[in-house]
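Lesson 9: reading folded outputs for more than one chain in a single document. The general rule is that every protein is listed as its sequence immediately followed by its structure tokens, and records are never interleaved. Here is the first one.
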Amino acid sequence: MNISTLLQGVATFAWLGFIALIVVIFARSSRQQPTKGLGTIAIVLIVAAVLLTTAGAGLVFVEPDELGVVVTVLGQGGIRPNPLGSGLHWIVPFAERVEKFPKVNQTYTMSASTNEGDIQGDDSIQVRTKDGQQVYIDASVIFAVDPNKVVQLYSTWRFDYKDQLVRTQARGVIRDAASQYGVEEIVSSKRAEMELSIESQLSSILEENNLVLRDFVLRNIRFSDEYAAAVEQKQIAEQQAQQAAFVVEQKKQEAEQARQVAQGQADASVIAAKGEAQALLIEAQANAEANRLLSESLTPELIQYQYILNLSPNVQTIFVPSGQQFILPLPGSPGTTITGQ
């Protein structure tokens, strides 16, 4: 409760007390009862009531979140040129009054939801896009009164600036901007661009009308039922195409994997064959080298010795011609007879 309200309340009680006292005075006078001293009290009450009423009418308290426009019958034009800021102010009682405007940000919402917008029911903006599609746009305009131009705002719009200015201009700008784009551009690639265009145009319009645009919010974009069904079918077709492409890619990967496995097996077979061939080659080379070394190491005596060793398990009698050496000649030499059992 501010001081002006308090003074007006006290003045009201003073007036009530004065009226009650006048009634008492008339009642006592009609009964010829003394009224000494009541007249003085009545005078005091009426003087206090007048003073308090005048003070209450002249003192105005402007809240910290408000601006005051003084409407006067004394000055030319009927409005003081300068607004009142926050705090306690004096105006000419009964000749001036203060109209208060909010200094804080205000929001005007246009929405299809029943309890979401400033107007009950569907208040979304219907727009025909460049390609002829019908869309419905929900939006919010966040704005504030320009504190330096609040007097001009009052002179031009009074308190109808939200409905007559903000709402009307916002809907017109949104329709004009959205009609420059196709429906797919609005919902995807060009949405941010369109939003910036609306904000820029709306900011200029509000500034010309003594308001400041704080923000513009493109809340939602809806399609007609027919277009929504077409979009859903398109999305389903795209999903099916993506699924088919995924299956094809999966089959390609499986085929590539099988090819790589077969290639690996073939490479392994080639490597194994090369290894076996290399092993045989090494073995042959080793056998050849062994034969070469064996051939180089053979002597007649060694051959005879090995020959005898191979015969000895089955030989019991050896006849040696008379006059010959005891050591047998090589196999195939004349005069050699070997019998075995």
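And here is the second record, again sequence then tokens.
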Amino acid sequence: MLGYIVRRLFQAVIVIILVTLGITLLLHVLPGGPARAILGPRVNAVQIAQFNHDNGLDQPIWVQYGTYLGQITGLGPVLGGHGWQGVNFGFSYRLNQSVGSILAQDVPKTMLLVGLSYAIAIIVAVPLGIYQAVRRNKIDDYALTGASFFFYSMPVFWLGILLIGVFSFTLHLLPAVGPQGDNVGDLFTQLPALILPVATLALITIASFSRYMRSSTLENMVQDYVRTARAKGASDSRVLFAHVLRNAMIPILTLIGLSIGYIFSGALITEALFNYPGMGLRFWNAGLQQDYPVILGIIVIAAFGTVMGNLLADIMYAVADPRVRYSR
């Protein structure tokens, strides 16, 4: 098991290095270079040269990459003999604030939104998929399958607009704008405003997870170990929950890790739609304002979260199915 985790950690580090290398290279393909993109089109040559010198952009590309990697890991000062001074994602000239402080304010809010959506999706999708498998080819299975296809094929922005139209403008039950505040505690004081943003992400995720859970349950219900358990006199509920459930959950564990990137992209649109003050809305506004340090910092965080999600899924997969530890 330890060797399996070490291999996965090594692969995760390689992926993160490649992502950060790609980000460094992207800085040099911006129209007019990073200085003109950050300082604006009216900047003159002297200001560009000074900006490049102050930020090390006049150094060779490999030196710039090493500096950037040292900043986002906090190891640059350590290697220079000054001790660890924390992670540095750069400085936003548009907001006159360090990117690290911006992310520290916004990331917890996005984690709250995504975490609640994930938790609700898993709690609802797993029993829903099992129920559909047990009731396969019945009218309720067909109805739930139709609803799953409806929400699964629905674009995130369109589902959010529909929910706002129905519950905010027609029924006047819920606010059309997400909760506002500087920290996560402020958001908890506005729980009604959380419902629509969370529901927008959760409904699509439930549709996806429940389909996988139904298929996985059906596949396991025809396996030999199920027939053996029934031949020994085990009840249907015991077979389902003591034998089938654990094996049927394995694809869901993998899906949880693999879908983190998709959930983040959905959160970006959802936060922009509901004006939810998280990382997604910040990314949206930074794109409109061409605030590249913020954009790059959020990309690094999103890439790290996606890689860690995949790593967690691999570990959970190995715990659920011990054969994976030796077959990979």
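What the second record shows: Confidence is low (pLDDT under 50) at residues 78-86.
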